[in-house]
Structure prediction request, 348 residues.
Amino acid sequence: MRPLNAQRTAPCQVGSVAVVLMVSSRIRASEGRGKGQDRKRSHSCPVAATPDALEISRRAATADVMAILEAAGLAEEQLAKDDPSADVIALIRTASASHLEQLGGEYDSGLTPEDDASPLVTSSSSFDAEADKSEAGASAGVSVDELVDRLTQAYARTRGALENATDPGLARLMASIATFQLTSAQELASSADAEMPQVGLPGLPQLPTNPPMGISSGDLKPVVLAEDAAGYAYEVLAAHRSDAPRVAAVARAAVHRARGDNAATAAQIARGGQDPRRVAYDLPGDPSDDAYVRQLELNLTESYATLIGLAAEEERVHFFDLMVDSYHAAQTWGAESTMYPGLPEQQN
Prediction:
């Protein structure tokens, strides 16, 4: 794929017609300068476009996806058909192939080495390292532990690079892919009894109480209502549970209530006439069923993915952490894995 900011240039060729036109033009431009002046003809070959911040972000995400896709294939070859990790790795392969397509595929300048007059940047340094690992491990295969490590490292790189993706649509896509990568790593590690690597995972994230740059009060108002409604739903669920599930529901209810408070404060509508929170909420179906809280968490995952696309670049990581946490909570309460968390337009 050519970079997002590049235009295709034809190979460096100078035909006879082009020479005549160029010489004629120079002759006209030099009229009056006197005979005997030297006239020089020169031309330059096209060069690969220098990638901007957007293209660098895209290539880095693409490189990680390519490395994961290859590693998943190698890991899958070593598994028995009844291995509990087999289904997880199969989904990782399928999802990574789709991620690669949505990211635009591997960089292609459209030039051949003979055409290009400058070195062609084809990959990020992170991909070079992953490619070296892939070549070294091709004969020996890739273990589940190594695949878990690649998934978590890809997540961590994306989290640190979200502010560099100048296009909001690409930022949302990268965030969704990274959310899948982290939660898939956690699911794979659990199925294989492997250890999750330390990649600086954030603690329980909270919404900032100051108005985030790029986000309006109107953007936050639905989040205020959704977070408060989720807190209420978990409180009702806790009343119908006992032991560990009850403790988990009570804890999650407190998290959502606090996020609703913070969102209302950031939107500057807390306890005012525009505060949308209610004393009680209608709960469809059986209030003791996990299905409702699962759906609320998935709805919040979509809400935070939307805010990633609206927020200023430096504010994105707050909403990304909340997106990951909401999606992980949905899975904890029984939601199935999807290839594009938070992006309903990509689910089909």
Summary: DSSP finds ten helices and no strands in the chain. Confidence is low (pLDDT under 50) at residues 1-42, 116-131, 133-139. The first helix runs from residue 16 to 29.
